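Ticket #4471: structure export looks truncated?
Reporter: QA, pipeline team
Priority: medium

Steps to reproduce: submit the single chain below to the structure queue and open the exported record.
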Amino acid sequence: MAKSWTVQQLDAMNTKDRNILVSAAAGSGKTAVLVERIVRKITGENQTDIDRLVVVTFTRAAAAEMKARIRNRLDDMLDEDENNANLIKQIALVNNAQITTIDSFCLWILKNHFSEINLDPGFRVADKGEITLLENDVMEDMLEDYYQKGDEQFIKLIDAYGTGRNDANIEEIIKKIYALARSNPWPDEWYAQVLDTYTSIDNGSNKVLANLYESIVYSISDYKKKYEYMIEVCNRPDGPVSYLSAVNSDYMAICGIVNSQDINELAKRISNISFERLSTKKMPDALDELKEYVKGQRDKYKKYIAGLTKNVFTADIDSLMEDVHANAMAVGMMVQLSKDFADRMETEKKDRGIVEFNDIEHYALDILVRKNGIDKEYTGVADELAKYFDEILIDEYQDSNQLQEEILTAISRERLDDKPDNMYMVGDVKQSIYKFRLACPELFMKKYYTYQTYKSDNAEDIKDAITDKQKACRIELQKNFRSRKNILDTTNDVFYRVMNRNYCGIEYDSSQQLNCGLDYPECKDKRNFGWESEKSTDVVLIDTSEDDENSSIEAEALYAVKRIKALMTDENPYYVYDTDLSDYRRIQYGDIAILTRTLTGWADTFVNVLLDNDIPAMAETAQQYFKVREIKVLISLLTCIDNPMQDIPMASVLLSYFGGFTEDELAMLRVYGKNASKTDKLFIKQIKAVNESCDAALKELSYKCGSFLDKLAALRKKSRLMTIYDLLWDIVYNTGYYDYVGTMPAGKKRQSNIDVLLDRASSFEGTSYSGLFNFLRYIERLQKYDIELTDSQGSGVGSDAVRVMSIHKSKGLEFPVVIMAGLNKQINKMDARNRLVIDQELGIGTDYVNLDKHTKTSTIIKGAVARKILRDSISEEERVLYVAMTRAREKLIMLGSVTGTDKKMSAWQMLSVELALNGIYSYAECENIDKYSDMVMPVALMDKTLNSGIFNVCIITSDEDVVCDTAADNDQVSDIDNVQPCVTDNTRLDEGVPYIKEKASDMHISELPEYIKDPDADRKVKVTVSELKKMQEDSDYDINAFMPDDIKAAYKEAGKDELEAADKITNQEKAEDEDFVPTIPDFISDKEETLRANERGTAYHRVMECLDYNKIESLDDVKADIKKMLDSEKMNSMQAGCIKAEDVYEFVKSPIGQRIKEAVKKNNVRREQPFMFEYDRQLVQGVIDLYMIEDDKIVLVDYKTDRVKKGKAGEQELIRRYSVQLDYYALALVQLTGLEVKEKIIYSFALGKQISLE
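Actual output as written to the record:
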């Protein structure tokens, strides 16, 4: 059945030949619209191919989902029209279409045009963990160099801005400047603008001062409107007429300030302002409320002006700028350090052959655009791509930054006069919550307010688009197809009042409001707690004592437990509407999400409290992941292997599966070990002492200590000979630990957590770092910076558990019931209060430190930058609140803990009255927002006739039991300004009390039936060829868990005696081969640094990847080519030194080498081909050394450097080791190319010959 689209959605799908901005509100179906637009472009009139579209999404998951949706839509169309050649063609093209993230698209540009910027094509994309390690190492080396040089300006900078006994503060400053500069398309220009702020003597052209001027004028303009109302109040018959003289005097001064021409005049007017005293003349007819209102508003304005004169305009502008100019040297040094750090990082990354995502974007821009001063010149590559791609579609446009904007503009047709504009941008600026990732919502807002509103009845305008390229348009998608009407109404109520265009850049008006697009059917037996007209958004404040934050968090968590149990109770369960069933069903734990602004400090508490109360729950955070028992034990064990002198990890290991000690035995170890080891308090020393003890009473403990020491010694030895992945694999599987954790509660999940750690160990092996010490540093950085791991740790989608997640993580998701916790948590304003403040637009603001006078002065530039940062922070928090409120489908509960309730309620009610008068938060009121409750409570407390939705406000003590959603009859609802009681009794608000405290009887919660998890739910679905080989070698491991029976049988036959045979061969090789390289680290052997066997194999593979077959005619040609690789840094000297040119030449001369040489001439060879393919519900991944196409069939070649016996025995050994691996490669190539694999060949460098596999 055809989907029913709204008129606006159809406009968004069909409008063309112009730049289009689609403002898509939360839940408006923007992804469905985007998919349908793409499908119509490739199947409708004037159709194009899907690979001629660029579709940029924010995440890989979103890109994969969009590809899947498009593929499914095309499949459905093909079912109805089986012979449609275009549909068949588009389906074939989908997988290779540019539907991807901006990073991946830039990577595609880079891989196809790397020669434009002389980049080595063998680069690798480093992960965040590796980059943070590298940054720390480079920073340490750089600062050490500056200290050694004794640079005078550097030493002054350290003296002025360094803190404590280390350089942590200076390092943070440099990294912040470095990161912000790199988010700009041309960092050097940004650096120059920063320095210009401190060196320019023209105040009129100073960008920072201009921004300060604008913000103050906006704020005082709002006061101007308030004063106009105050004048009206004073002129009323019952108004305070005697106050009119002072109010008029203030008003005239305000008008002068608002009309100031520049920052100099503004500062002068504010500094010279004086306030006339209010008349004390009696006014018998004046109402006290109106007198208090006027006095209160005037006091607010006076306080605002006092703040400006005390903290901003402490002198005239020229005098204030003297401190700024005096600070130019310090800021110049900061910039120099940041640029030096950037240069060193680039050099280090090139040496290691790595790039990070920001590098990829900058390299892509370098390929597309050349910058000469203020002039931009688009390259031939940019012109080629602009002509090739018919449309650029950008999803989540509100989260783009200026660098990404320049890249996508470069491949658009905006500059091509003979073609229509072709940028299609979709997003919702109200959901731009990634400022910390340097998103630039201003890009969206600028276009939103400059593009004309599109109306379908003006569709004829499109015909003129080619000649009139100014007719860019915006289309509004306002209907929400997710949430119940009351959730939308209460969301609108809040943001109509909060979002002020002058302050946060967007006006929440009729074009931005959420309109209900989904009519929920009535739940006839009231299982859903009442009719639609009785739905409410609950605002619950817990009156807590003045304790620390942790007790407040726990109070909120305990309240969440009560609400969840009330929803889940057998007697009166909550029912939610299931669109798949088209009916109501009982709520499940997985329908509930608890959202918090940050997970730090909150996730642990909430998850633990919920679990303690028999509510299944999970959280999504790297920090949470590293705190689970099975991972903490493994990290502690690795720490002890690296350094057994660390007592806390050692205690953890001793009490764990690996140690087997009891707490009593640990106590005995402390007592007896301390005596035996004299004064040594370290566990490892005490264990050794007890092990050597002859005391009969310690015999059993001594034996256990000896056993543990033997295990630890064996693991420490292995750590010097094995990769981290192999070591961890050995620990996890050969000790039975993996099976052990599988028997624990949630065993499958715990095993999945271990799989994630193994994946990280494997990823670490691909970095430029090595060794256990660096791996532990790597893990430390993952924890410190909360770097995401993989989806394996995930949100538990598919699991029946309450999810605790950050609001940021919830973006794009929806839940039947949302509990938003931390409503009264302080908004983080630290970025505006640091000693150094830094902004993408305005640059750097610092205090001026006079080392001679030992004084520190806050500069006007710092104040201006801080005000901008504060404004951006609060604006983003408004958008974060919007995202949180729009995640709920059926029930929204907002939860916060409050101290000093009377004072808070009084302030909120006063602001509520202000809102009733003014309709919207003023600029100054926005500046004073400290918590989400400051945005929600004044609106929730307004007269109910002024709101569209129903707010259900409860204030309780932390030990009270409250059930807030029991469908109170209308006559039981309080008649006090829309503040409704949360219980079913007739308790009402007392006269004059601005809040309520309601009690309910304890609820009886019967035990829930045990949740039985699908045994196949957590089945491992992704394995590497290396893992398959590992499972072959481990006779105790059940390979059925990872591979189908036919592959299992092949492994069993092939790998019968492999380990024993390999040991024999290795021992023989040690004796026979003088070139044998022992895998012992040089710091142990004191020998010259050498390559391990696997590194030697990597070196050979690198040569074969880069070898220029067309130039190889002799042995000297091979040597010259290897030297060329070394000179161009495609390999290092150690790698080049271990390559025998004779081996490579023998390969080229061999029959297979000659066949490859011919295929290279025809461009029919692919080297180092990565793959991932599905086999029996599993994903198998790997990299194929080489394949070539002969006679439309594939010849697969795999290089091996294994040292094996000469002759047939060695050949058979290689076949036995690698036949299954090549079978997988062949299966992958069939899926990848659709061609038949006619030959599978192993080339052994040790044997100097090729081996054909059947």
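Status: closed, not a bug. The export was complete when the record was re-opened. Leaving a note from the reviewer for reference: The first strand starts at residue 20 and ends at 24.
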